[in-house]
Amino acid sequence: MEMKSTMSFLFLLQALINVVSAFKPPPIPPEDINVYRCRNTGNYTSTNYKNNLISALSAVAKNIGAHGGFYQSSAGTTEQVNAVALCPSYLNSFFCESCVNKSIPLLQKNCPNQKEGVTWVASCMVRYSDRKISGVLDDWVWVHLPKDPIVAKVRELDQAVSDLASRLQTQAAGGTSLKKFASGNTTYGMEKVDLYAAMQCTPDLSKEQCTKCLFSTMLTVHSCCSGKLGARMLSPNCYFRYDHDQFDNIDVLPRATSIR
Length: 260
Ligand SMILES: *[C@@H]1O[C@H](CO)[C@@H](O)[C@H](O)[C@H]1NC(C)=O
Ligand SMILES: *[C@@H]1O[C@H](CO)[C@@H](O)[C@H](O)[C@H]1NC(C)=O
Ligand SMILES: *[C@@H]1O[C@H](CO)[C@@H](O)[C@H](O)[C@H]1NC(C)=O
Description:
Elements lengths: L1 H22 L10 E5 L8 H17 L6 E6 L5 E6 L6 H18 L6 E5 L2 E6 L13 E8 L3 H20 L6 E9 L4 E9 L5 H19 L2 E7 L3 E6 L17
Antiparallel strand pairs: 1-4, 2-3, 3-5, 4-5, 6-9, 7-8, 8-10, 9-10
The structure holds 2-acetamido-2-deoxy-beta-D-glucopyranose (3 copies).
């Protein structure tokens, strides 16, 4: 009898540990995402293209910090290369510049000869192309990054995400030719859980183009990321991001390092 109850106690204890560890929040992953996509529509072979690419990207890296987190540059008279970078407006200029600095080698390494490529490192986007970039909505690639786990209140979360997104879409698209960004927060469920979100378009897009781009992010959030703790929907022209934590400059730093 004694033995049996000890056994069942141990069994219960183990079951309890399993339940507790299943619900233990996962360690916060470093926010450093390293995503890149090379467009498979053509490769370059000339050093002229390569040199133009290097100049366009360096001009972007050099100027983005002083230009509010958005900069476009073109280089070359023949085989012109256009480059662009966009930092979320919640990054300050120092972190924006360092994010772009980090992105360029990654892009060059991973798209070694493609005429067009894009990367998202931490929170910034860097892209280059042989075609016109400015004012063009060119959603040739979408990247969806769901963040685990699934929350307990899926329906409430999805509704809150959708409501917040609609509000931010209008605000972001209604921005200026220098900035089309909106961020906000809300709560959901009985427990009033905090939720944060941000949306942004490259500001060279028109209001209509930005609305359209952000609308695509809102459509896909349901299919890719329903109930997820957080998610990012990234395109070369816009993004939508939500999470249960606020977004800030910490994004581009290793978590353990303190800022001095
Ligand atoms: C471009 O080069 C890559 C290898 O770097 C190759 O996989 C790809 O098929 C090439 N694309 C075209 C359109 O030739
Ligand atoms: C970015 O790179 C440039 C050129 O290498 C350098 O001068 C600048 O200090 C870097 N900026 C940051 C914030 O790392
Ligand atoms: C949450 O939103 C309110 C307004 O809706 C704003 O005043 C507040 O600063 C926001 N808080 C954070 C942490 O973003």
